[in-house]
Each structure stands twice: as C-alpha cells, then as structure tokens.
Specification:
Blueprint: E1 2-5, H1 11-24, H2 36-43, E2 50-55, E3 61-69, E4 78-85, H3 94-108, E5 113-120, H4 124-132, E6 136-147, E7 151-161
Parallel strand pairs: 4-5
Antiparallel strand pairs: 1-2, 2-3, 3-4, 5-7, 6-7
C-alpha cells in the first residue's frame, strides 16, 4: 500500500465509499444526505492542510485521510484528522497506516498535538485503533450523536501529544 497526496481526479474513486460511509450515519457527524460536490469541498482540503489517499498495489484507492489545523489562531498548534476506509478493505491495516501517516505529517509540520473532536463512542474499531496509537479520551459529550441504531450516544474528544 502507498499513501500519496490526493488529487481532484481521485474524488471519483473516493466518492462511492465516502457516500456509503456518510449515508450509514453511524461514524461521521456529516449529514447523511450530503451531496457529492459539498462532500468534495469538505474532504479535499487545500494547503497547508492535506488530503491523501491510500492505494493498493494495483493503484486502487482503498482509503483516504484529511489532515488539518484543529483550530485557528492560538489553537493552531494542534492538528486534527479524519479517515475513511473503503469497507471492502476493512481490517487490512489501511486505517492504521493512514493514522500513522497523519501523525508523522503533523509532527513534521510542527504541530504539538493531534486532537479528534468527534469520535463516536460506539465506533469501537476507531476508538481501539486511536488508543493503540497513544490517543486518550479526554472527555465525552454525552448524547451528542444521533446513532441510527443505538440512539443518542456520546462523542469522544481524543488527544495525543506529538
């Protein structure tokens, strides 16, 4: 697997699994009916932020990540990131590779920490992955996420110093 900067041309490969993940409504705070153009604008970030894709040996896009400053101004020393893995490639280390890549990017860019603002507490795979990479839950906003199966569940704020 290779991770490289995403291009506008990659959106055609990202959109099908992006749309499926968002429409499921169980892991992202995006509107479940998010349209393609709005989704593109939210995901494909301009520098100094970054969007990347993970591609397999055949050149197939199997996942993507966006990395950005978490806050502006006096909070701009903390990075954030979001990840999506094509469900057909789940369990193959794509998410871990993207997360490790984003941590290295943030450190090289001079950030002091990385923070995730809204990790759905029922997203056990993501929570386990982030914890294994040194993130801690620093707080949970109770009932902040309307999960389609579990009702109102918490959103974790997760943090890791770099």
């Amino acid at each position: 697997m290779m991770i490289r900067e995403a291009t506008e041309d990659d959106w055609a490969a990202i959109w099908p699994f992006f749309q499926r993940i968002v429409a499921a409504g169980d892991t992202f705070t995006y509107p479940v009916d998010l349209g393609e153009e709005e989704g593109r604008g939210w995901w494909l970030l301009a520098a100094p932020n970054r969007t990347v894709v993970a591609v397999d040996e055949a050149g197939v896009v199997v996942g993507t990540a966006k990395m950005n400053t978490n806050q502006a101004g006096n909070g701009s020393h903390v990075a954030s990131a979001s990840y999506m893995v094509d469900p057909a490639y789940a369990g193959r280390g794509v998410g871990r590779a993207l997360c490790e890549y984003s941590l290295a990017w943030a450190k090289a860019a001079g950030y002091r920490a990385m923070q995730f603002n809204a990790v759905v507490e029922t997203n056990a795979y993501a929570v386990k992955l982030y914890r294994s990479l040194g993130f801690e839950v620093v707080g949970t906003v109770p009932g902040a996420f309307a999960h389609p199966e579990h009702g109102y569940v918490g959103l974790h704020v997760m943090h890791r110093a770099l």
